[in-house]
């Protein structure tokens, strides 16, 4: 009698990531000390974020421990390279990229990492720079017809951003970055000075963008080539849309109420009008940019933090290959 074989299960697609739920990830904290207090979170938490001390303990302390391993390992590799070349070894800044959508909480993630890493014994100088300052000015975006595509890759001065990171990485004593105002929604004439940091954190929508080829065949290069570690803050698109609308409503009562705010015209909207306005901005600008440009870079990250509907991290994916 012929034996009938049971249908074999389809094999899971290969992935370079190991995936852990929050409970499993939290165990990797081991003895990493807790150095933040509730008052610190009030200062670091972004508008709409529900970050609490338990999330710092269960998500960010294990990540801080992992980053410490990376910093020491990368430094050791550079020492080996210097020895091979017969050069005098020099400490090179460790660069961390933090990417993700508008309203997903990447700015809070970057600030928490900065705070934790700056409290390590041997890395007191940690600098945080956002790519907002490298946006073209509103006047320049208007001239190029890109004002309604602000935040898309083409709205940034990528060459200036490349120069900035390369200069910091090369050990220049002082490197200046443009300063951006979320009040006036424009680049300011003053600058932010970065002075030989031990760690540089670069936060922005498109920091994991791959290089593009120019019409003449040359490449733009990728700023992520300078990264030693990168984090992508992830969540379902519909959840981010909800968070964006909720944040817009809060800003209407806070920042938008300032007469100097670029968005002051929205301060007097009713709740219904504000929701419709926010949803329209999301659908015209932020969602297309997320789907077309930001989300496709997720698989380039070293680590992916995935959030649930309550804004809390539920899953962590760490690249092993």
Please indicate the percent range of residues in DSSP E strands (runs of 2 or more): 15-25%
Total count of domains: 1
Q: How far apart, in Å, are the first and last alpha carbons? A: 47 Å
Low-confidence parts = none
Stated plainly, the CATH topology is called Rossmann fold
Q: Superfamily at the CATH H level?
A: P-loop containing nucleotide triphosphate hydrolases
Mean pLDDT: 92
Q: How would a textbook summarize the main sheet?
A: 7 strands, mixed
Categorize the overall geometry: globular
Compute the number of helices: 8
Multimeric status of the protein = single chain
Helical residues, percent: 25-40%
Helix/strand/pairing category: alpha/beta
* Rg of Cα set: 21 Å
- SSE topology string: EHHHEHEHHEEEEHHEE
Number of strands: 9
Largest sheet: spatial strand order: 1-9-8-7-2-6-3
Give the CATH architecture. Answer: 3-Layer(aba) Sandwich
- Under the CATH scheme, which class? Alpha Beta
Task: Describe the fold and architecture.
- The protein is of the alpha/beta class and 321 residues long.
- It has a single domain, classed as Rossmann fold, CATH 3.40.50.300.
- Helices cover 37% and strands 17% of the residues.
- The chain contains eight helices and nine strands.
- The termini are far apart.
Task: List the keywords.
alpha/beta, single chain, 321 residues, two-stranded antiparallel sheet, Rossmann fold, seven-stranded mixed sheet, 9 strands
């Amino acid at each position: 009698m012929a034996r009938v074989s049971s249908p074999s299960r389809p094999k899971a697609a290969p992935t370079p990531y190991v995936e852990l739920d929050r409970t499993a990830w939290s165990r990797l904290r081991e003895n990493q000390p807790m150095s933040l207090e509730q008052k610190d979170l009030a200062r670091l938490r972004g508008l709409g974020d529900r970050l609490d001390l338990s999330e710092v303990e269960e998500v960010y302390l294990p990540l801080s421990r992992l980053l410490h391993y990376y910093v020491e390992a990368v430094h050791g590799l550079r020492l080996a390279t210097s020895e091979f070349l017969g050069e005098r070894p020099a400490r090179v800044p460790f660069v961390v990229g933090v990417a993700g959508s508008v309203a997903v909480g990447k700015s809070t993630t970057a600030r928490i990492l900065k705070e934790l890493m700056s409290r390590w014994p041997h890395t007191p100088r940690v600098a945080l720079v956002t790519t907002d300052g490298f946006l073209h000015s509103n006047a320049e975006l208007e001239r190029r017809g890109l004002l309604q595509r602000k935040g898309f890759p083409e709205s940034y001065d990528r060459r200036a951003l490349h120069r900035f990171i390369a200069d910091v990485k090369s050990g220049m004593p002082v490197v200046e970055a443009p300063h951006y105002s979320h009040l006036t929604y424009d680049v300011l004439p003053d600058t932010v000075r970065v002075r030989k940091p031990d760690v540089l954190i670069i936060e922005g929508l498109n920091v994991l963008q791959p290089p593009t080829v120019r019409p003449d065949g040359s490449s733009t290069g990728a700023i992520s080539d300078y990264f030693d570690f990168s984090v992508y803050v992830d969540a379902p698109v519909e959840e981010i849309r909800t968070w964006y609308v909720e944040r817009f409503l809060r800003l209407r009562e806070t920042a938008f109420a300032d007469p100097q705010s670029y968005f002051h015209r929205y301060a007097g909207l009713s709740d219904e009008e504000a929701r419709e306005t926010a949803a329209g901005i999301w659908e015209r600008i932020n969602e297309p940019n997320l789907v077309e440009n930001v989300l496709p870079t997720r698989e380039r990250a070293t680590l992916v933090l995935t959030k649930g509907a309550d804004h809390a991290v539920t899953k962590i994916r760490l690249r092993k290959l």
